[in-house]
Amino acid sequence: GCETFAEEQLMVYASPIADFSTVSSTLCAPMELSITNNTFNAETYYWSFGDGDVSYSANPTLSHIYENTSDDEKQFDLQLTAESSNGCVDVAYKSIVVYPTLDVSVETTELTGCSPLRVDFTNNSIGVDKHIWSFGDGKTSYDEAPAHVYFNDLFVPQEYIGKYSASSVFGCVDSTEFIITVSPQTQAGFT
Q1: From CA 123, how far away is CA 117, in angstroms rounded?
Q2: First to last CA, the chain
Q3: Which uninterrupted H or E stretch holds 73?
Q4: What is d(CA 81, CA 68) in angstroms, rounded to the nearest whole number?
Q5: Neighbours of 126 (CB within 10 A)
Q6: What is the pTM of this model?
Q7: Are 99 and 170 in contact (CB under 8 A)?
Q8: Is residue 150 within 8 Å of residue 144, measured between CB atoms?
């Protein structure tokens, strides 16, 4: 028999290793997610954030803002496709859970008035599970829409800076402040 030998030199290129990290994989919307690119041996990058947005950033750090205006948590698949100069590709994935937006909004019947001043609060907040009202005078309430009476025993108007804080069933928090100005009670005097 005849033997035939063929020799061919093959070039094997190093594959990129796509890798990234995030501080957290669960967020309260709207929230900016910081991403650190730990990829090795890549020339080009394609980021798909899972919400329709993409990026070709080669920066070592980047960020993306995730939104969720629904009533339920949403999951987004963050994907990085890394390609080497020789056309080799690697892909890394991470699931990002985004909780619904907590929208805090309150109104008051009065912002200024004479002592004793009764203020009724209307709560227009969306997505709230727990309420904490701090009225600025040392008093608090856990009611959804409380009423509060402010007093001023001084001879000059008194400003109270109050705060409404709320949290959702997902642990997301938001707050807003309000200012109530209470003038001293007018006292008539005769001589």
Answers
A1: 19
A2: 138
A3: none
A4: 25
A5: 15
A6: 0.78
A7: yes
A8: no
